[in-house]
Specification:
CATH class: Mainly Beta
Shape: globular
CATH topology: OB fold (Dihydrolipoamide Acetyltransferase, E2P)
CATH architecture: Beta Barrel
Structural class: alpha+beta
Largest sheet: 5 strands, mixed, barrel
Order of helices and strands: EEEEHEEH
Number of domains: 1
Strand order of the largest sheet: 1-3-4-6-5
Radius of gyration: 16 Å
CATH superfamily: Nucleic acid-binding proteins
Helix content: 10-25%
Length: 126
């Protein structure tokens, strides 16, 4: 069974690849039990309504939780062969979210007074 769950922070703005392509971003995730608070940066790919949700509400620094599966790809030849890891997200949740078109002063007020969050998708979080 290939199932992963990560909690971390958005390290890049979510961007869409192509006109109908997926949303991609990178998240920073602390390694548990690391002495120097080591951080890994993971690439996430999100399709469909979950991708639209992430693009609308996700911003650099937003806390995020993603659930999905790990996909690997290998490229290069000989000694220069590399393996890349990517999380294909099936469900995501952005904490302290704000619509990107909301004015800055309203964003600050909403973040300080509201603990509400919006979730989409077919998951046990619904």
């Amino acid at each position: 069974m290939n199932n992963t769950v990560f909690s971390g922070y958005l390290a890049t703005e979510p961007k869409q690849r192509g006109e109908n392509g997926p949303i991609t971003a990178r998240i920073s995730v602390r390694r548990p039990f690391a002495k120097d608070k080591e951080v890994d940066f993971l690439t996430i790919t999100v399709w469909g309504k979950q991708g639209e949700y992430l693009k609308e509400y996700g911003a650099v620094g937003s806390m995020i939780e993603v659930e999905g599966y790990l996909r690997t790809s290998t490229f290069g030849e000989g000694d220069k062969k590399r393996t890349d890891f990517e999380i294909i997200v099936e469900h995501c949740h952005v904490y302290n979210q704000r619509p990107k078109d909301e004015p800055e002063t309203t964003k600050e007020h909403a973040a300080s007074t509201s603990g509400e969050s919006k979730e989409v998708g077919n998951s046990y979080w619904d």
